[in-house]
Amino acid sequence: MAKSIDVSDLDIYYGDFLAVQGVNMTIRARAVTAFIGPSGCGKSTFLRSLNRMHEVIPGARVEGKVLVDGQSLYEPGVDPVAVRRQIGMVFQRPNPFPTMSIYDNVLAGNRLNSKKLKKSAADDIVEKSLKGANLWNEVKDRLGKPGMGLSGGQQQRLCIARAIAVEPQVLLMDEPCSALDPISTAAIEDLIHDLKSQYTIVIVTHNMQQAARVSDDTGFFNLKGAGQPGHLVEFNPTEKVFANPDNDSTEAYISGRFG
Ligand SMILES: Nc1ncnc2c1ncn2[C@@H]1O[C@H](COP(=O)(O)OP(=O)(O)OP(=O)(O)O)[C@@H](O)[C@H]1O
Ligand SMILES: [Mg+2]
Questions:
Q1: Confidence grade of residue 114 (pLDDT, cut at 50, 70, 90)
Q2: What residues contact residue 47 under an 8 Å CB cut-off, 6+ apart?
């Protein structure tokens, strides 16, 4: 079941440092939302605030509201671990579990959710997820080998397989294709396209063509200068952002005339 996300007046801090300021946006269910913007403007920080991964950093906190299908994410009593189960994440740097095999890496989330998983069901999840992440053919004969023994791009696809294996309601992807070759990138974009009929997908990308190809809505983040907080400049349907943006700085960024 896909869910929509409503963000209002969100400020995100690392200790005293205000990293992202005053974000308002609605992320639609069953759609792909892309975040673009220069390095350091807070895309990853904002993404992590959507599934409560931000607060695992000591001193990190948010002010404001995030509603997932109307339910407040930051209300007292909400279990952050349960939130992270429903709102999956693929990180900017691949992070397979170092001691686990390829097979067990894919199933790591499923095993957290339910202890008992029949061998045949587990095999099916592993195959389907690895196929979805376009990794199956490369690893099907060495599923018992360590995940750390894969190349960087393969590890990234392994992490994508792990995230989709639990069929989360929302999937957050932080530059999932930055380490991938064009063939795997195309496969991941196809996967994103397939997943959006069921899920809500948010993707951070530095690749403008990718944002234009895969997303329905695009948010452009920027920052006024070093040490200043990042902020959302514009949030609109992707076609509009790329053809006729509301803001001059959006236009400058996407056309490469920036800074
Ligand atoms: N763990 C942290 N502790 C303190 N400050 C941090 C931490 N992580 C990020 N920041 C700061 O928050 C700001 C936003 O960083 P963030 O990683 O969200 O940017 P980004 O838009 O994802 O950049 P990039 O495109 O390079 O990935 C930066 O000023 C960064 O230095
Ligand atoms: Mg980032």
A1: confident
A2: 35, 89, 172, 174, 202, 204
CATH of the domain at 246: 3.40.50.300
Rounded Cα–Cα distance for residues 124 and 134 (Å)? 15
Q: Which helix (H) or strand (E) holds 27?
A: strand 17-27
Look at the chain and report how many structural domains it folds into. 1
Rounded to whole angstroms, the Cα distance separating 173 from 233 reads: 21
Give me the phi and psi of 132, to 5 degrees please: -60, -35
Residue 99 falls inside a structural domain = no
Range of the domain at 194: 5-94+170-254
- The protein residues having their C-beta less than 5 angstroms from ligand 2 (an ion) are 44
Residue 198: in which H helix or E strand, if any?
A: none
DSSP β-bridge partners for residue 25? 7
Q: How far is the CA of 146 from the centre of ligand 2 (A)?
A: 27
Q: Which ligand is nearest to the CA of 19?
A: 1
- Measured from the alpha carbon of residue 38, the closest ligand is 1
- Determine which residue's CA is closest to atom 3 belonging to ligand 1: 14
Q: What is the mean pLDDT of residues 79-107?
A: 94
Q: Is the pLDDT of residue 259 over 70?
A: no
Say how far residue 179 (Cα) sits from the centre of its chain: 15
